Amino acid sequence: MSTPTFNYYIVEDEYLIRQNLIHKIDSLNLPLTLCGQSANGKTAAEDIDRLHPDLVITDIRMPQMDGLELSKYITENHPSIKIIILSGYDDFSYAQTAIHYHVSDYLLKPVNKKALAESLQHVLVSLHAQDQKIGGSLTADKNNMDPDALLSVIQKYLAEHFREDISLREIADYAGFSQEYVSKLFKKKTGITPTKYLTRLRINESCMLLRKFPKMEIAQVASEVGYHDAFYFSRVFKAQIGQQPSEYRELSGESS
């Protein structure tokens, strides 16, 4: 059986430090694949909603949203994601307050390769155990699954299938519980229903497509994110973003 590979995401506002850290991780030959990077916590939070990495490595001091705010956001919205915080010497005691956000480790900058390797190995052990727990529960008895593990299963399912027609019934059937239980559990853990979470995934993805592909027709953008009716997609988009898709695209192009 091949060794599973886990995705990681790096948030660091200094480009050279970020690239050096990526290079160090690559040189360790661990089962980790970079799935994204950002210079600020706000952009990172948006990416994390879309990419669902297994691990986030974040600096503590950043513009727009700092590492502690990002850690809090991840813990509240994606409890299965592991977090490693990077901090300077003067910030280290400040960083330790992130224990409330279930941070896996803290690394002092400049990051020592040996310390980095040890930290990542501990995270990988935890990720393997988490996957085995989820997989074992799915194949054995879903009724014994820990609520956080069940939430992680549902979130990953939605992240992988949000482009398809998905109903609450299908989500519940996949999870192996009633629609009422899944909806209540999801809202208790995330603050929103599975349906609203699905909408958020779709709209976040559509924003990326509108920015990245300025010539893509709105109807195609809608189809790419799971909406077969372009007019309905536009209504949902405006309700979520406050602008029509075409207006959002135009304004994003002006600010880029």
SSE series: EHEHEHEHEHHHHHHHH
Mean pLDDT: 84
Alpha-carbon distance between the two ends: 45 Å
Query: Structural class, please?
Result: alpha/beta
Number of E strands: 5
* Main beta-sheet strand count, sense and barrel state: 5 strands, parallel
Our Rg estimate from Cα atoms comes to: 19 Å
| Percent helix | 55-70%
Task: Note the overall shape.
Answer: globular
Low-confidence stretches: 137-142
**Quaternary structure of the protein:** single chain
Could you walk me through the main structural features you see in this protein, from its secondary elements to its overall organization?
The termini are far apart. The protein has a five-stranded parallel beta sheet, with helices on both faces. It is globular, with a radius of gyration of 19 Å. The relative contact order is 0.08. It is an alpha/beta fold and 256 residues long. Helix 4 links the parallel strand 4 and strand 5. The protein contains twelve helices and five strands. Helix 2 packs parallel to helix 3, helix 7 crosses helix 8 and helix 10 packs across helix 11.
List the helices and strands and how they pair.
Layout (H helix, E strand, L loop, with lengths): L5 E6 L3 H13 L4 E7 L2 H11 L3 E5 L7 H11 L4 E6 L4 H4 L9 E4 L4 H27 L7 H15 L6 H8 L3 H12 L3 H19 L5 H7 L5 H12 L3 H11 L1
Parallel strand pairs: 1-2, 1-3, 3-4, 4-5
Quick summary of this structure?
The chain is α/β, with parallel strands linked by helices. 59% of the residues lie in helices and 11% in strands. The chain is globular and about 55 Å long.
